[in-house]
């Protein structure tokens, strides 16, 4: 997982609340067998609307999504995080995230920055006054800046540490690989393996 | 220090324990199938990580495979199966593909090879992994990220589960089976009653069950919301294992049995919860609704939602009755079915097929009923055919199929049509589970066979009554 300290990119205003994971990536895309390529399913239903924010060229390179409260509710599908990241998003800003989505995001390296709803409104205004404006998200200082606006955000300390270090779950476990190797030496000899006996 | 069976197995697998962190648990066996593994392998590829212990990993094709001869025609199913084959080849994992004698439902394959043993930790990206707990293993289903984690590290970071004792005291009456026990347990504690727990099934009725019957009980632990189900290993377990392909031999066998014999909850162990069930009161159970907790004795009637006090339960019952096309007060025995499905990781083993054949022999499947018999694995198929069970099924008018998950979840072409009603030996009666609009009644193999003959939900005892009356 790529380490995250600070990120600057085009902000995308998504003026909707309760953006559920079925909207982020509809079930029909779940039949795939890869971890990549889900960007085409991101907000698939909404992208049929020519006025939808991601259909506007100025937001084509958007990487910081600013959404209404209760982002990521519904099904636990990890594909929702993959779709956002495959599209190019590194940060989602909202005043409230669904727990499972926030957990899945932290594991994959997508920063979910929680800010006061008043600040979300201010961010939306900045972006709408100047479409395509860049937003800087500083995970060290825990601040978001856009134009003259600087707003603090919340992220739990554990997730922040992992993102700063670039550690996914597996990376974390492998920091203690020596413990695993030691444990393996102590396993009883009679424990089975899947290797054919005749081989 | 005293402990429960689950705690003993857990403690023997802790690789690392640190304040404020989940325990890092070692995994003895990781089973894979085609549906939940592709993104896990892709994740390894993206990070350039190998599979740590290919020798503790085994894959089989089951969810998507057709049960009639010929190739997979559905493109999505085909892609999943081909992807698993490619991944196993690339990463060096042993796989049992379609057509291999060892291929079959993942939870049938592990035990029959002797790979599932007491005291092991076993995981698979499938909720019915609880099946393996019948051997006194701690076995549970995991998600795709966790599959990737186990592939890369052979461990999982986990918070300890709570423990619940399910004491099934006394002896089961004649004609009452493991399936009836677990349906009664789920009806009693509810589909969420086991949430966060490992269930340990104990008591005289459990000890009297065969290994395969114990697997049926543990298999459906997840239907009570539990992470896992376990039964302490005993002589029945050891006898089942001895001589199987991957079971220990010689001095290893003796060492293993010595260790396994200590795998039981201590007399003074404290469970977080206990449930008592009087086995002598149980009768054949069937479900009437759309979750596995909505079950009743076969002799009962469809409940009247108006008599249910709890508003949530009342609404759920009404919704279920509407979906199932039933009328409150209707005797369950009056419900006619269109299809009978015998198979799945719950009841697709050789003992189940012997039971069904024993009841079908000399009878015909009712004209109005289509009956599918799907062996749980290639080995079960071969054994059944060696015993002539396939001929019994065919002569009775049932279809004898190839091994796979089949109509349990309808990922392959074996599905119910909208409105079609089944009596099914599988594990889930959710809306649309066996096909869009399909209606499922969960039953034991005994009830499935009798129902196929009579066309209405029935137990073998109902057949005897008819035969006697006819004479």
UniProtKB/TrEMBL annotation, chain A:
Domain annotation Aconitase A/isopropylmalate dehydratase small subunit swivel: ranges: 1-117
E.C. number(s) listed in UniProt: 4.2.1.33
Gene3D superfamilies: Aconitase, domain 4
Record flagged with keyword Amino-acid biosynthesis: yes
Pathway it works in: Amino-acid biosynthesis; L-leucine biosynthesis; L-leucine from 3-methyl-2-oxobutanoate: step 2/4
UniProt cross-references to SUPFAM superfamilies, sorted A to Z: LeuD/IlvD-like
Record key words, sorted: Amino-acid biosynthesis, Branched-chain amino acid biosynthesis, Leucine biosynthesis, Lyase
Job description of the protein: Catalyzes the isomerization between 2-isopropylmalate and 3-isopropylmalate, via the formation of 2-isopropylmaleate.
Subunit structure: Heterodimer of LeuC and LeuD.
Family to which this protein belongs: Belongs to the LeuD family. LeuD type 1 subfamily.
Designated name of the protein: 3-isopropylmalate dehydratase small subunit
Species the sequence originates in: Arsenicicoccus piscis
Biological classification of the source: Bacteria, Bacillati, Actinomycetota, Actinomycetes, Micrococcales
């Amino acid at each position: 997982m790529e380490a995250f300290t600070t990120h600057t990119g085009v902000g995308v205003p998504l003026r909707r609340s309760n953006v559920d994971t079925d909207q982020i990536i509809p079930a029909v895309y779940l039949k795939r067998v890869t971890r990549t390529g889900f960007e085409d399913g991101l907000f698939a239903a909404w992208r049929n609307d020519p006025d939808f924010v991601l259909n506007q060229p100025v937001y084509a390179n958007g990487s910081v999504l600013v959404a209404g409260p209760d982002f990521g509710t519904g099904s636990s599908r990890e594909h929702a995080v993959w779709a956002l990241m495959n599209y190019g998003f590194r940060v989602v800003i909202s005043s409230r995230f669904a727990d499972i989505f926030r957990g899945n995001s932290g594991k994959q390296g997508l920063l979910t920055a929680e800010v006061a709803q008043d600040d979300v409104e201010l961010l939306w205004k900045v972006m709408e006054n100047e479409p395509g404006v860049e937003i800087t998200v500083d995970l060290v200082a825990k601040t978001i800046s856009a134009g003259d606006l600087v707003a603090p955000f919340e992220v739990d300390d554990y997730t922040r540490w992992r993102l700063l270090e670039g550690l996914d779950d597996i990376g974390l476990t492998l920091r203690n690989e020596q413990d695993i190797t030691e444990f393996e030496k102590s396993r009883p000899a009679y424990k089975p393996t899947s290797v054919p006996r005749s081989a | 220090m005293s402990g429960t069976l689950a705690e003993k197995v857990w403690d023997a697998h802790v690789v690392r324990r640190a304040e404020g962190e989940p325990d890092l648990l070692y995994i003895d066996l990781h089973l894979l199938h085609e549906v939940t593994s592709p993104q896990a392998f892709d994740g390894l590829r993206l990070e350039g990580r190998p599979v740590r212990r290919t020798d503790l990993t085994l894959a089989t094709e089951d969810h998507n495979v057709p049960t009639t001869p010929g190739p997979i025609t559905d493109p999505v199913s085909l892609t999943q199966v081909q992807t698993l084959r490619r991944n196993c080849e690339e990463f060096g994992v042993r796989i049992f593909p379609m057509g291999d004698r060892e291929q079959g439902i993942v939870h049938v394959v592990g035990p029959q090879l002797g790979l599932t043993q007491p005291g092991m930790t076993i995981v698979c990206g499938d909720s019915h992994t609880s099946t393996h707990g019948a051997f006194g293993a701690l076995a549970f289903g995991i998600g795709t990220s966790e599959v990737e984690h186990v592939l890369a590290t052979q461990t999982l970071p986990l918070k300890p589960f709570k423990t619940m004792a399910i004491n099934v005291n006394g002896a089961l009456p004649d004609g009452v089976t493991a399936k009836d026990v677990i349906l009664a347990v789920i009806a009693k504690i509810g589909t969420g009653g086991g949430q966060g727990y490992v269930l340990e099934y104990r008591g005289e009725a459990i000890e009297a069950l065969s290994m395969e019957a114990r697997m049926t009980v543990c298999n459906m632990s997840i239907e009570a919301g539990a992470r896992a189900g376990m039964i302490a290993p005993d002589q029945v377990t050891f006898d089942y294992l001895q001589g199987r392909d991957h079971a220990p031999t010689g001095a290893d066998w003796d060492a293993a049995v010595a260790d396994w014999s200590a795998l039981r909850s201590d007399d003074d162990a404290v469970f977080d919860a206990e449930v008592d069930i009087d086995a002598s009161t149980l009768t054949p159970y069937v479900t009437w609704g759309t979750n596995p907790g909505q079950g009743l004795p076969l002799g009962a009637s469809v409940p009247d939602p108006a008599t249910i006090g709890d508003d949530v339960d009342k609404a759920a019952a009404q919704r279920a009755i509407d979906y199932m096309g039933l009328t409150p007060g209707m005797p369950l025995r009056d419900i006619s079915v269109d299809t009978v499905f015998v198979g799945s990781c719950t009841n697709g083993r050789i003992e189940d097929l012997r039971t069904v054949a024993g009841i079908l022999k000399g009878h015909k499947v009712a004209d109005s009923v289509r009956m599918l018999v799907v062996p749980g694995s290639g080995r079960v198929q071969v054994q059944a055919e060696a015993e002539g069970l396939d001929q019994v099924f065919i002569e009775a008018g049932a279809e004898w199929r190839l091994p796979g998950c089949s109509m349990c979840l309808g990922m392959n072409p074996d599905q119910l049509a909208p409105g079609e009603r089944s009596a099914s030996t599988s594990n889930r009666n959710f809306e649309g589970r066996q096909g869009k609009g399909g209606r499922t009644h969960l039953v034991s193999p005994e009830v499935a066979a009798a129902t196929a003959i009579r066309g209405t939900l029935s137990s073998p005892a109902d057949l005897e009554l008819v035969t006697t009356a006819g004479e």
